[in-house]
Write a structure and sequence with these properties.
Residues 1-170 form the DUF5931 domain. Residues 308-401 form the Histidine kinase/HSP90-like ATPase domain. The protein has 13 helices and seven strands. The protein is α+β, with helices and mostly antiparallel strands.
């Protein structure tokens, strides 16, 4: 709902309440008017106008300029008719005009619709009409009109600030949505294309000959694609004679083996019903990967389970690269009351201090997007515990409350 919508709702109620107040004043002063019939006729017109235009002030779209001008005309007409139906002595004493404080509703309509400039213009017209009705500047009139002018300008300025804030927020949300979608695509690219290019580059260099040239080109394209998905800027591959653009073999997310099976679909999949996370993690088990699971199903929305399983797969990819083919890995799945935790531990050499930050700065996407980015989008966390010579442990945690929200979001999107 728009920030200014409550102001329109308040204005709708204000017009009704002030109409009742003006009608009460008319009834109370009926015997004091010089021409009470004229006052009754005007109040009947004012009541009919308010009833017929009740929905016109319900929103900015319905409140047109033509209506605002007509509304202000009704108010000004009532102010100028007051000397014709009321006595000069009563007017000199400061007796309210026929529309009384209902007039302020017409001014506020201008302020909410067009900002402080419209409010200032409308309040100036009302001030001029009141001066004409009183026959000059009286102290109480000046005080009242000053309040009307200040209130209309103040509310108009607040509306302008609220609209500017809404536009800024909308731009920020669009940027955030685009960034998240870009990160999602980057994860998918890392889990497939970049790993294939890295494999071709290494195998080509190992085979030699024409395959080495093919590997060199694959390495150049890997660098260009990695730069594109991490920064949005494309770097032209170096193709000079004798110049090789090779990926850093020590980078965290690269793999030396062909990529595994395709990752499970993410939160955007159409089928987001309950899924047993054990079934997605079990295929990772093997001679060098031990999988420990609870005895009961660990149910998560399918999209959440798929993303968590993909993060586990990326963690195992890093184990194969940095701990070596002879390293052993352990996957521990824990179903806590408030969260689901997956721990991936290996007996490799560990990660040197500061290497994760350096890899992310270099545009390596394994940790930044394939693991940490996925968990962040799920409302969870990814923590690394490592020391040189003592292996590495990755703790992936997804709160069940966040998983529930993700499921509800998927159902709403459908």
């Amino acid at each position: 709902m728009s920030v200014e919508q409550p102001l329109w709702q308040a204005l709708t109620a204000y017009r009704v309440l002030t109409l009742l107040y003006a009608l009460g004043l008319c009834v109370y002063s009926f015997d004091d008017y010089d021409h009470p019939i004229g006052a009754v006729v005007y109040m009947a017109v004012l009541t009919l106008w308010t009833a017929l235009t009740f929905r016109m002030v319900a929103s900015a779209e319905r409140c047109t300029r033509r209506f605002l001008v007509g509304d202000l005309g009704i108010a000004v007409t009532g102010i100028l008719l007051t000397p014709l139906v009321d006595s000069h002595d009563r007017i000199a004493e400061g007796t309210p005009t026929l529309p009384s404080i209902w007039t302020m509703g017409a001014v506020l309509g201008f302020a909410i619709k067009g900002g402080w400039r419209w409010g200032a213009s409308a309040s100036t017209v009302v001030c001029a009409a009141n001066v004409i009705e009183r026959g000059g500047f009286a102290q109480d009139t000046v005080h009242m009109l000053s309040l009307v002018w200040v209130a209309s300008v103040g509310i108009g300025y607040v509306v302008e600030v609220a609209r500017a804030s809404e536009r800024t927020l909308a731009r920020a949300l669009r940027i955030e949505a685009a960034t998240r979608e870009r990160e999602r695509l980057a994860r998918d690219i890392h889990d497939s294309v970049l790993q294939v290019l890295a494999m071709v580059q290494r195998r080509g260099a190992a085979i030699g000959g024409e395959a080495a040239e093919l590997g060199r080109m694959a390495g150049e394209q890997e660098i260009a694609l990695r730069t594109l998905v991490s920064t949005g800027l494309v770097t032209r591959p170096r193709t000079g004679e004798g110049t090789e653009a090779v990926a850093d073999p020590g980078a965290l997310p690269d793999v030396d083996d062909p990529p595994g099976p395709p990752r499970p679909p993410g939160p955007g999949r159409s089928d987001d019903g309950p899924c047993d996370l054990r079934a997605l993690l079990a295929p990772h088990a093997g001679s060098r990967v031990t999988f420990s699971e609870p005895g009961a199903p660990v149910l998560l929305p399918a999209g959440v389970a798929g993303e968590l399983a993909a993060a586990v797969g990326a963690s195992l990819d890093n184990v194969r690269v940095h701990a070596g083919e002879d390293a052993h890995a352990w996957i521990l799945l824990e179903d806590e009351p408030d969260a689901v935790m997956v721990t991936v531990r290996d007996d490799g050499p560990g990660i040197p201090e500061g290497r994760l930050a350096d890899a992310e700065a270099e545009g390596r996407l394994g940790v930044a997007l394939s693991i940490r980015g996925r968990l962040r989008d799920l409302g969870g966390t990814a923590e690394w515990i490592s020391a040189p010579g003592q292996g590495t442990e990755v703790e992936l945690t997804v709160p069940k409350a966040s998983a529930k929200k993700a499921r509800q979001k998927g159902e709403a999107a459908r």
